[in-house]
Give the backbone structure.
Amino acid sequence: MVKKLKPLVSIIIRGKNESRWLKILLKKIYNQTLNNFEIIFCDNNSTDNTLDILKKYNVKKILKFTEYLPGKVLNKAIKRCSGKYISILSSHCIPVDKFWLKQHIESIEKRESIAAVFGKQIPMPGTSIQNLIDLDMIFKNQPILYTKDPYLNNANSLYRSNILKRNLFNPKLTNIEDRLWANKIVRKNLKIAYTAKSSVFHLH
């Protein structure tokens, strides 16, 4: 019997009634140069054809929930992950190219002290002026290594699984679970990295 290869990356995707983006996203993910991954989908009570699309792409690990607390939902998904790395991605964030996942891993492997890395988000037509300003201020073209006062965004991120599983998100927060996690991690002398190479189109 051929032993099944353990995935290098577990990709957690969150979504609610975003099937129009999900079908594009999954196609992009399966077109990555690095294809040793598994997908864990967190479904927030979708009523569109999200589940049909997941079935089409043979996504086996599906977590359903009705109350959305990001940390709580992500923690449940993290416990189902078997990869060395854990990527967290929103359904409406579409990788720009086929090197998205490869670039994330190259960025996090630059130093053993990097606990997580997040990538650039590129706004699409129709994005509000305020969101355009926010995205332009946060997501620059130069890489950043945070050793204090870190930023981190779970719309497009990658973590070392062994660190994340020992340091789960705050399950009671309604938002910024990623940024508070980053603050906690740098106090343990670990680092957060940012790379523009692992870019996604932000379609929300």
Q: What stands out?
A: The mean pLDDT is 92. The chain is about 30% helix and 30% strand. The CA atoms of residues 14 and 108 lie 22 Å apart. The longest helix spans residues 19-29.
